[in-house]
């Protein structure tokens, strides 16, 4: 009888020590997992990270364009640069009403002012001048309208897709331009 009791107690101790080992292992794994998840959250929330990354990139681009737009030494009074117009388009929505002419300057966007959202640009008979050195617009969005706008002296290297406007979107309108 003593032997059976001894075996039961021994068996119980082995079982308890095995159970404690498993519990300890799971605690360690949980701690490690939470540390790994802290680092790997980018993988789990990939869409959110890409969205945040795109927002940061747009903000950085806006800051660079804003700094470039402030450098108006070569522009005459009442004229804006391509970088300034790009910044206006990036920040605008709905209808953008131009209140001055825009002219390409060295250091500006040479491959075209990018329009990547549905927008109306009301030129109010102002002029966008590529100075025979830059493409004027690169439109990648549907539903873009260019209205009452003079587009002159566009240039495209190797005559690639025209110098004034490269239009990849659908349902676009050019009105009185």
Automatic annotation (TrEMBL):
<dbReference type="InterPro" id="IPR011050">
    <property type="entry name" value="Pectin_lyase_fold/virulence"/>
</dbReference>
<protein>
    <recommendedName>
        <fullName>Adhesin-like protein</fullName>
    </recommendedName>
</protein>
